[in-house]
Specification:
The protein is an all-alpha fold. About 70% of the residues lie in helices and about 0% in strands. It is globular and about 50 Å long.
């Protein structure tokens, strides 16, 4: 199990970080080119699914069961369907528009949330799918598997929650270089870890994670007024 543990805490975050340095991510977050938004989100989903699938196969090969990482399929499937229906209902409503001045809009343009936020009806519906994939896969890896692996190796539960939260934060790539984003991911990771240990239910933290991401559908839409690139000498915009 050492290889899977190293993968969860070192290899997997490294893969996400590498993805955040590829062309679609740089064009989106550095040049503020929203036409790369779909490519970036698809790349993240592919990573999520591939990593989760590989981890599940590894666990099965070593005799672990789904229940040992908190998965109860007869509860998980209907809950995911309910979340999908709720998300699609929210996405079907027209987003509220936020009126901001040109200068105010350009100040906000660099925020990650404004660059990946769904604006069109098509983006809103596809965002629901992304939320489900992210919520299920990230919680499977960074709560269900990560915490279970550390606890089975004799780690104190507090350290297990803390280390899983740090690893969870690092998969968000370059965004964590900002103190506010890093703090948000760490706090959210710790909260989800505590809930997972307390309930021993992966479904609970998946629901929390998906619901949190779906909240972006309720935010007023605000498109960048001026698409000025960030100061980065290594990227041509």
């Amino acid at each position: 199990m050492l290889m899977l543990t190293l993968s969860v805490f070192v290899l997997f975050p490294a893969l996400y970080w590498i993805n955040s340095e590829l062309a679609w991510a740089k064009k989106l977050f550095v040049c503020r080119d929203r036409s790369r938004r779909t490519s970036f989100l698809v790349s993240v989903c592919v990573l999520h699914i591939a990593i989760s699938f590989a981890s599940i196969l590894w666990l099965k090969a070593h005799g672990w069961t789904a229940a040992e990482v908190g998965i109860v399929f007869w509860k998980l499937v209907p809950a995911v369907l309910a979340l999908a229906v709720a998300g699609l209902l929210i996405a079907s409503f027209e987003p509220r528009a936020r009126s901001k001045s040109s200068s105010d809009g350009s100040k906000r343009a660099g925020r990650v949330t404004m660059l990946i936020a769904p604006v069109t009806r098509r983006e809103r519906f596809s965002w629901v799918a992304f939320c489900l994939v992210a919520g299920i896969c990230e919680e499977l890896i960074y709560r269900g598997i990560a915490i279970s692996l550390l606890r089975s190796a004799g780690w104190n539960v507090t350290y297990a929650i803390g280390l899983s939260a740090i690893s969870f934060a690092t998969i968000h790539g370059r965004s964590i270089l900002k103190a506010g984003a890093l703090a948000q991911h760490l706090v959210f990771g710790v909260l989800l870890g505590i809930v997972y240990v307390w309930t021993q239910s992966l479904l609970t933290v998946i629901t929390m994670h998906v619901a949190w991401n779906l909240l972006l559908l309720l935010r007023p839409v605000e498109l960048p007024a001026v698409a000025q690139p960030f100061e980065r000498s290594d990227v041509e915009c």
